[in-house]
Amino acid sequence: MLALSGSLVIMLLYAALVEGISRQMVTQATDYSSAHLQIHRQTFIDDRDLYATVPWSYLAKMEQAFPTLQVAPRLYAAALASAGQHSSSVMIQAVDPKREPEVTQLLSGLSEPISQLGQVRGATEPFPRYNLLVGSQMAKRMALKPGDELILVTQAADGTVGNGLFRIAGLLRTVDPNMERRGILMSIEGYQSLMALQQGFHELAIRVAEIDDLQPTQPLIEQRLQQWQAQQPLDPFGGNLLLRNWQQLNPAVAELLALSRSMMLLMGLIIIGLASLGMVNTLLMAIHERTHEFGILLSIGMSRWWLLQMVLLESLFLALVSALAGTLLSTLLCNHLESHGIDLSGQLPDGYEWGGILFDPVMQVYLEPQAIIQLVGLMLLITLLAALLPSWRSTRLRPAEVLRC
């Protein structure tokens, strides 16, 4: 019983840790970066085509057709950044400072206080200047700090050389390591001034009210997009509109989650199987010590089938008591860890990276009822299978030989 209940406690704690990390991974992937759904043009997905934009009218249509959803447009580009003696290629991401906080927590990952993205107030230059955010690792590499100036040079959408002088408003810390190393975040207004691109946006990030609403909501949005494209066809060069959920946007994360759950069941099979060997040994000893009693039962007319059932029931009751004890202890431990988490900030103050996603140093734990049912059922099944051998041996006893001993 101690072996079985102990193995169940280990597996339930492991399952709770895997589920906590999985939920944290989904939260990091959706709340801090991709959101639950995204809309793009096909050529933008294939080639990051600068001109593959979605018309601004689609933003108003989405807000009108789905008032319960939160949407935020985004634009992207590549540029060369320079400050002082340092220069680097950068990835530009433009967001709406008002809509983006309603969809993701991208603007909350800041290591320095910032002012709002947009025009620099009080600038005396003839052309407006804009604030932007730079990745923390890029800022360290280029010796940048809030308040410094940064020059961006790129090829604008109209074929001219786009350039501008921007003010660094803060340092950005995101779950995407590439964004920290090469990323620049600016407002859509500042992007349009730099890139001369006014006709639309590259990406529309969508957030549903609850993650469980994602599956029924996605087909409805796809149906509306098809209707709008039929009513107002888009230019053929950008391709059709595609709606993808976070699992399609981050297939590596989705596969990692599926793999982790498969590994959990495999480890459960191994650990509980090893613990069941103790059950086999216990039952073999019990049958050996009660050989005389079993012989008497057989001699007075008990069928071998009932004797087999009796031994199996004994192993089942042992497994049920072990399951009850292991479940209660695991629930108490998981409730404590769910409230406090596993704090690794002493060893990993900046968090840890897994699957290309940066996690907080406090690991979350969450025990699902489904995991309890699966692992308890697995333990009962393995225990009964392990008890078949000693139960079968009990049915092979010969009453005459047993009573003679």
Question: How would you describe this structure to a colleague?
Answer:
The structure is a single chain. By secondary structure, this protein is α+β, with helices and mostly antiparallel strands. The protein has two domains: about 1-30 and about 250-405, no CATH class; about 35-250, no CATH class. It has 14 helices and 15 strands. It has helices at about 1-35, 40-45, 55-65, 100-105, 135-140, 175-180, 190-195, 215-230, 245-250, 250-290, 290-300, 305-340, 370-395, 400-405; strands spanning about 35-40, 55, 70-85, 85-95, 130-135, 150-155, 160-170, 185, 200, 205, 240-245, 340-345, 350-355, 355-360, 360-365. It has a six-stranded mixed β-barrel. The protein has a two-stranded antiparallel sheet with strand order 2-9. It has a two-stranded antiparallel sheet with strand order 12-15. Helix 1 (about 1-35) packs antiparallel against helix 10, helix 10 runs parallel beside helix 13 (about 370-395) and helix 12 packs antiparallel against helix 13 (about 370-395). It starts with a helix and ends with a helix.
